[in-house]
Amino acid sequence: MPAEELELIQRSLNGDLEAWGEIVARYKEAVFAVTLSILRNRADAEDATQDTFIRAYENLRRYDLSRKFSTWLFTVAANVAKNALRKRRREKDPPLEEHSGDPAEEVHADLRLTAVRKIVHELPQEYRSPVFLYYWHGLSVAEIAEILGLPEGTVKTRLHRARAMIRARLVEEGVIPDAVG
Amino acid sequence: MRWDEVEELVRAALTREVQEASAGLAGLETRVIQALARRPLRRSFLERLRAFFAQPVPRWALVGATCALLLGFALGRLTAPRPIPAYASNLFVIAAPGARAVAVVGDFSAWQPIPLSDPDGDGIWTAVIPLPPGRYEYAFLVDGKWVGQDPLAHEYLRTFGEYVSVRYVGGSGADRSS
Questions:
Q1: CA-based radius of gyration for chain A
Q2: Domain range holding A31?
Q3: A81 and A113 inside one domain
Q4: pTM for this entry
Q5: A95 and A110 fall within a common domain
Q6: Contacts of residue B14 in chain A, CB cutoff 8 Å?
Q7: Are the beta carbons of B163 and B130 closer than 8 angstroms?
Q8: For chain A, what is the domain count?
């Protein structure tokens, strides 16, 4: 862990909220990507991101300084998002947010990219989270397994299946040719 | 299209999705600090535990838990992997002395585990899986640990930081083990 980050965490442990604000600024986008991958709704993911930083601060004494901080923080984020998902399902699961960008912008956007975003958006949740953590966060399979609380073999099989599903849908929608690479 | 090209598309798509969606994160630092400054002191774990057990358990919760258990069981049965249609048999074999559970996962099973067996307990685990001619990617799971390099494979790939075996069945690349 960088010395500067360690210092911020130690100051946070001593009750320095400004130092924690700096941690929030550094990790908010990465935490948001974790919560978005699970909740698939921007507003809910924003709430879960805020909740993650509040819970993480309150439980900071449980964080083992010898471990990688981001892995611990993403584990908190995944748990907060899963709880929010359960609560949403209990109350009344709203329809998934439609995948939509600015229509005018999308006309000019790369059609393949738009198709991939839609396909990833529609993947089942158990596949979306490993896909985000692997391809967006660039984490190792071991770290993803720790964050999601899954065996490494399960993470690997889910990544393989997700990738196969994405390619199959791209072929099905005529975005890429049906050829084995 | 190659796998690495698909993966590059996925990376680019996710980057754009997060960039567009994260506009609402502006000022989050201030909101978190304000929320933490306003929060009352948290009760200790023991206090919360005592308060939790002081509440009576509602009957609907027990009924709900039973229903969820039954529903999960039914869904598990319904979504179980379908058997592969009968084609030429292929032997998957791995030496794993002392292992408790061995399975093979591959694109032929949508990466769902197919268990191997070791009836005589000699540490050689096998499964015969009927497969039509084609190219197959697979790996073994030995007590949940990924074993991607099968000595009987025709080639190996490296994906997600681990090896995956490749086997060709039928045609010019006939399977060595069948």
A1: 18
A2: 1-99
A3: no
A4: 0.64
A5: no
A6: 33, 117, 120, 131-132, 135-136
A7: no
A8: 2
